[in-house]
Design a protein that fits this description.
alpha/beta, Rossmann fold, Helicase, Ruva Protein, domain 3, Zinc Finger, Delta Prime, domain 3, 3 domains, six-stranded parallel sheet
């Protein structure tokens, strides 16, 4: 089978009517758009769900060929199907790649197998890598490149449709202009707007203006750093500067909320053994000391802080509080 783009591979899965019959036994997923990789794998898992599928996860670093070969070749004792996922495929040693390719070439695997490479690959690697070449012969090699602007707009429209919300392409493009092309950021904005329009069923540019909107990147980085450092005075000073520069209160709420959400997401992904470089890209944090700083945050404390922000924002939006001062709310977070 040929190499395919993400959209081509997804279309074949989306048109599936026979569950696992539409799923290839072998996949090699590569590219820098990790959220799309995650969603693609989730789609495969949904199609295999009716088979009571068992999942095994391996990592390229220190990969045991014997354990992987056993998982690929054997049926599960408790399920009718087995899904084997190998993350960080770019870290598999060349000798190990050759061995795995030999195993795959000598017989069709009993399991469904997905290799995940989070990096962009050059054409010579795609054409010469023995593992990729072997998978391309009987399976699918799928590229996950960053989406172009119009593709991001289409992604936004489709995500809202999945959540039973309508949005025009013009308004979807407006959200794209505000949030940018990082799909994790876009997904976060979409989730907020879905909640914000729970009684409307339609998302407008006015909703986006009130609920979304990114403050300058420098301010986002500064506030996130101040919060992770636990520096109350610095955070209050930054909030003062933002409010004095005529930033909307809701924009500042959104910024602080995002900072705590990033901490929560980072902790969750660390527990799943996702590499720090991958986590940093997903949540758009590039402070080298970030992961050391967030060790002091406990889950229940973060949830409590998010509740404080939510309650305060709701009180303002509902009209219960007029001319609200955000500073006492921020002070309560420390």
């Amino acid at each position: 089978m040929p190499h395919k783009s993400y959209s081509e591979a997804l279309t074949s899965l989306s048109k599936a009517t026979h569950g696992r019959q539409s799923v290839s036994r072998l996949y090699y997923l590569w590219g820098e758009e990790h959220l799309l990789q995650e969603e693609f794998i989730k789609k495969i898992e949904e199609l295999l769900a009716s088979s009571n599928c068992e999942k095994n996860i391996f990592y390229g670093t220190g990969l045991s060929i014997d354990d992987l070969a056993s998982a690929m070749a054997s049926m599960s004792l408790f399920s009718s199907e087995r899904l084997v996922i190998i993350k960080e495929a770019h870290k598999i040693r060349a000798a190990a790649e050759k061995t795995i390719a030999g195993i795959l070439a000598n017989g069709f695997p009993a399991a469904y197998i997905i290799f995940i490479n989070p990096q962009k690959l050059k054409k010579d690697v795609l054409s010469k890598n023995v593992l990729i070449k072997t998978i391309a012969e009987t399976g699918l090699v799928v590229q996950f490149r960053p989406l172009y602007q119009q593709e991001c707009v289409k992604y936004i429209v489709n995500e809202f449709r999945k959540n039973e919300r309508a949005i025009t392409e013009k308004d979807a493009d407006y959200l794209y202009q505000i949030a940018g092309d990082n799909l994790y950021d876009l997904k976060n904005e979409i989730e907020k707007l879905v909640l914000y329009t729970i009684k409307k069923g339609r998302v407008t540019d006015e909703d986006i203006g009130l609920c979304s909107g990114f403050i300058k990147q420098e301010s986002m980085i500064a506030v996130t750093n101040a919060i992770t450092e636990g520096d109350r005075e610095k955070t209050l000073r930054l909030v003062d500067n933002l409010l004095n520069s005529k930033e909307e209160t809701f924009m500042v709420f959104s910024l602080i909320y995002r900072a705590y959400r990033k901490i929560m997401l980072a902790r969750s992904m660390k527990q799943k053994n996702i590499p720090e470089f991958d986590i940093s890209r997903r949540i758009s944090v590039y402070d080298k000391g970030f992961f050391d700083k967030i060790k002091k945050f406990r889950k229940k404390d973060i949830i409590r802080k998010l509740e404080i922000l939510h309650d305060a924002e709701f009180a303002i939006k509902s009209g219960k509080v007029e001319n609200a001062d955000l500073r006492p709310v921020v002070a309560e977070l420390f």
